[in-house]
Amino acid sequence: MPTATNIVWHDGAVTREHRYSLLAQRGATVWLTGLSGSGKSTVSVALEQMMFKKGYLIYRLDGDNIRFGLNSNLGFSAEDRKENIRRISEVAKLMADVGVISTSAFISPYIADRQVARQIHDKAGIPFVEVHVDVPLEVAEKRDPKGLYKKARTGEIKNFTGISDPYEAPETPEVRINTDKLSVNDCAKAILDYLVEKGIVEQRDDVVNKPVESANGTANGTANGATNGAVVNGSS
Ligand SMILES: Nc1ncnc2c1ncn2[C@@H]1O[C@H](COP(=O)(O)OS(=O)(=O)O)[C@@H](OP(=O)(O)O)[C@H]1O
Ligand SMILES: Nc1ncnc2c1ncn2[C@@H]1O[C@H](COP(=O)(O)OP(=O)(O)O)[C@@H](O)[C@H]1O
Predict the structure, then answer these.
(1) Residue 196's pLDDT band (cuts 50, 70, 90)
(2) Which mutation among 44, 62, 85, 107 tests ligand 1's pocket best, with the greatest number of atoms within 8 A of CB?
(3) How far does the centroid of ligand 2 lie from the alpha carbon of residue 19, in Å?
(4) Hey, which of 100, 105, 146, 218 would disulfide with 44, CB 3.0 to 4.6 Å?
(5) CATH number, domain at 192?
(6) Within a domain: residue 70?
């Protein structure tokens, strides 16, 4: 890929700290890596609901979804997966620079690519929390929520992670969740507990007084004290 030359960074007057102050939160990236069917999307959705109810602005970046748009030109070769992860890392970094907490749920099978994701965040001074969504291959394959393992076994899908392509598990992730041993809620809670323990987010009570259950992208909760449905800051 060509590298840009003759370019100069341009600073604005509104800083990251101004935006964080406006939003009453700091940006961060929660990076979920694991086999297909390990539970990355399911846990991300649960964490999003849990944190949204506490008044956090949180946004999910998800492998399948991103491949419909931004990364629709990428396949599953090692080179394409690397570019997939690099682009997502840059997007997550930008979102965190705005002040958004994002979850990135990507198989991201290669240690080197995840290292790049971490470096992009480290360089920008943004917290990067790697979560290994850990499950034995047999369990993921048995779940097979999209029927992809079946297709991979018959050879209909080539280069399928865990079957005909490698998955390099993280050795020292910030958080490891075993989705065959913990409930979805407990997995999400383990991540939130880590964020609180490390001071990445503060401890907050729920401020949204209805469950956030809609699966069509629109949240159905309303915030305590808010008349327009906007979420109010739950910090004291
Ligand atoms: N060959 C192959 N290998 C792995 N996964 C495949 C493949 N082909 C299609 N899919 C579907 O694509 C989803 C993974 O996309 P990602 O962007 O997360 O992959 S990667 O991080 O670039 O490796 C993955 O989503 P999840 O099952 O949610 O992980 C699959 O639905
Ligand atoms: N503790 C758990 N955490 C996450 N998913 C779980 C858990 N227990 C069972 N599952 C099931 O495993 C499947 C995981 O699928 P999905 O979230 O799409 O995985 P991925 O995004 O990693 O491909 C879902 O059918 C989900 O209901």
Answers:
(1) very high
(2) 107
(3) 34
(4) 105
(5) 3.40.50.300
(6) yes
Distance between Cα 74 and ligand 1 center (Å):
11
Q: Which phi and psi (to 5°) does residue 131 adopt?
A: -115, 120
- Ligand nearest the Cα of residue 177 is 2
183 in a structural domain:
yes
Strand partners, 128: 29
Catalytically annotated residue among 108, 183, 214, 235: 108
User: Tens digit of pLDDT for each residue in 138-185?
Assistant: 999 999 999 999 999 999 999 999 999 999 999 999 999 999 999 999
Q: Distance between CA 50 and CA 77 in Å, rounded?
A: 35
Q: Would 97 be classed as within a structural domain?
A: yes
Q: Is 108 assigned a catalytic role?
A: yes
How many structural domains comprise the chain?
1
**Atom 22 of ligand 1, residue of closest alpha carbon:** 81
pTM of the model: 0.91
